[in-house]
Amino acid sequence: MKTHEPAIFKAADVARELNVSEMTIARMVKRGTLPKPIKLGVRLTGWPREQILKWINDAFETANGKSD
After folding, report:
1. Strand partners, 39
2. Rounded-to-integer distance, Cα 46 and Cα 2, Å
3. What is the pLDDT of residue 67?
4. Going residue by residue through the chain (68 aa), what tens digit of pLDDT does each one get?
5. Whole-structure pTM over 0.85, yes or no?
6. Which of 1, 8, 27, 51 has the fewest Cβ atoms within 10 angstroms?
7. Domain-by-domain residue ranges, the chain?
8. What Å distances lie between residue 52 and 1, 25, 33, 42, CA to CA?
9. Beta partners for 8?
10. Cα(66)–Cα(55) distance, integer angstroms
């Protein structure tokens, strides 16, 4: 059975992908090391899934000394 990947990642989703806490996600956004989420509603923010996956890939490439 195929699992459904959300188009938008909430903070909990990003935290799970990075294996960190939601508080760490908030600190990363505040420091500018993680892109700011987009406002989706009055009380809802999130990141486009592809943006987070690209950010993770770019971080791995940077850590391994590779760049475009």
Report:
1. 45
2. 23
3. 59
4. 556 777 999 999 999 999 999 999 999 999 999 999 999 899 889 999 999 999 999 998 988 887 55
5. no
6. 1
7. 8-63
8. 24, 12, 12, 22
9. 48
10. 14
48 touches 8 (CB < 8 A):
yes
The whole-angstrom separation of Cα 64 and Cα 16 is: 22
Q: How far apart are CA 4 and CA 6, in angstroms?
A: 6
Give the C-alpha separation, 54 to 32, whole Å: 16
In which residue are the tokens 């809802």 written?
Answer: 44
Query: Mapping DSSP to helix (H, G, I), strand (E, B) and coil, where does residue 68 land?
Result: coil
How many residues comprise the chain?
68
Residue closest to 14 by CA, chosen among 32, 34, 44: 34
Residue 6 in tokens:
């959300």
CATH class of 8-63: mainly alpha
Beta bridge partners of 47: 9
